[in-house]
Amino acid sequence: MFDIKIYGDPVLRKTAQPVTVFDSSLKNFLTEMTETMIEKDGVGLAAPQVGESVRIAVIDVTGGEKEPLVLINPEFIEKSEELEEAEEGCLSVPGIHLNITRPKTVSVRAFDSEGKEFFIKDADGLLARALQHETDHLNGIMIVDHISALQKKMLSTKLKKLNKTGRDTSEIS
Ligand code: NI
Question: How far is residue 145 CA from its own chain's centroid?
């Protein structure tokens, strides 16, 4: 199982690189990511959260009922104008839950572990939210970036504590 990188770790702020090689080491990495997500009770996990700056995410919105969804090099091909607010947490920002407004439905193009392209059309609800949350991670974006400066200020004590674990002093002013 991988360790989860915590808020303040610079790897969480990098733009992740596309996957170009679909080999057995990628499959091993995906297996360990999936195990880590399940072990930590996450709805999703992005590779930067385990310290690898590559465009990979795993998602399970079924509570373990189905095989987790593997997304490699995901891209949005559509986002609805209609928005929806819901509460989100993040394994890299433990103990903090925030109401975040995002497009209600999204369509995604991605590749599977074999390098085969696939599409998810008009995802909504928790899946739409997870797709956006995990893709944010691949672009160095975290849940605290979706709230106002005032809200962030109100969280500053908690974030500073987390940041000590992550050790990037520039993260919090
Ligand atoms: Ni997250």
Answer: 13
- Region of 122 (left: φ > 0; alpha: ψ -120 to 50; beta: rest) is left
On whether the CB atoms of residues 93 and 162 are closer than 8 A, the answer is yes
* Catalytic position from the list 65, 85, 88, 134: 134
Question: d(Cα 55, Cα 106) in Å, to the nearest integer?
Answer: 18
Structural domains counted in the chain:
1
Assess if residue 78 is contained within a domain. Answer: yes
Q: Which two tokens stand for residue 117?
A: 């392209």
CATH code for position 124: 3.90.45.10
In a domain, 5, yes or no: no
33-75 pLDDT per residue, tens:
999 999 999 999 999 999 999 999 999 999 888 999 999 999 9
Distance 92 CA to ligand 1 centre (A): 6
